[in-house]
Design a protein that fits this description.
By secondary structure, this protein is an all-alpha fold. It folds into 2 domains: 1-56, Homeodomain-like (Arc Repressor Mutant, subunit A), CATH 1.10.10; 62-206, Tetracycline Repressor, domain 2, CATH 1.10.357. The chain is built from 9 helices and no strands. It has helices spanning 13-30, 37-44, 48-55, 58-78, 87-104, 106-113, 124-143, 152-174, 188-205.
């Protein structure tokens, strides 16, 4: 996979992880505005030159951080409990965990699926690889409950867009002054209920059910 961040010998992996841990810390604490070579170098207790040497520049650093955020989502999906006989319940549980992942760090979620960093567009080969790897796990869960003859990839994509839209709207509303007359009360419980109802409705509409 050809990406803009530089390849490394195994012995250099530890230093790379140190920089990425620092970049994640900056992202969580300062948001995208802090994602400069200087800001990450300071957080890692290193020189800006060492960041350039490791990643080739800001674009390479952001590519590597983008990859790390998807690694976190992949690890979440891989760590879900083993599939139970109730595939629909499993899929709803996955959807709820996905929502919690987004809520844990909206700025990380934005880096993954939006364009919060002006001028940054992830390397196409990297973007394709991380999306394919992550969503293969999601497709596997959808495939268990797809009706005969249905395309599980298409069903998974449609379900994910519903999840993404619901959680994206929730995060957007949470970042602004609450509206007193909004039809969803500004509470985590009300948002979770609406999210579950939306995801369940999409699953029903797609014909996803236990066989």
């Amino acid at each position: 996979m050809a990406t803009r961040h530089l390849s490394m010998r195994p012995a250099e992996q530890g230093n790379r992880e140190r920089f990425l841990d620092a970049a994640l810390s900056v992202l969580f604490d300062r948001g995208v505005s802090g994602l400069s070579v200087r800001g990450v170098a300071e957080a890692a207790g290193a020189s800006t030159l060492s960041v350039y040497a490791r990643f080739g520049g800001r674009a390479g650093l952001l590519d590597a951080l983008y990859e790390r955020t998807f690694d976190s989502l992949r690890e979440l999906l891989e760590g879900l409990p083993p599939s139970s006989p109730d595939g629909v319940a499993d899929l709803l549980y996955l959807a709820l965990e996905y929502r919690l992942f987004a809520r844990e760090s909206p700025v990380r979620y934005a880096l993954m699926f939006e364009r919060p960093v002006p001028g940054f567009d992830p390397d196409p080969a990297l973007r394709s690889a991380v999306l394919r790897t992550t969503f293969t796990l999601f497709i596997g869960r959808v495939e268990r409950v797809c009706p005969p003859g249905a395309d599980p990839r298409a069903a998974a994509y449609q379900l994910w867009t519903a999840m993404h839209g619901l959680v994206g709207a929730e995060l957007m509303l949470a970042s602004r002054t609450p509206l007193p007359d909004w039809f969803i009360p500004p509470t985590a419980e009300a948002n979770e209920e609406m999210y579950c109802r939306g995801v369940t409705a999409m699953m029903t509409g797609l014909g996803l059910r236990n066989r």
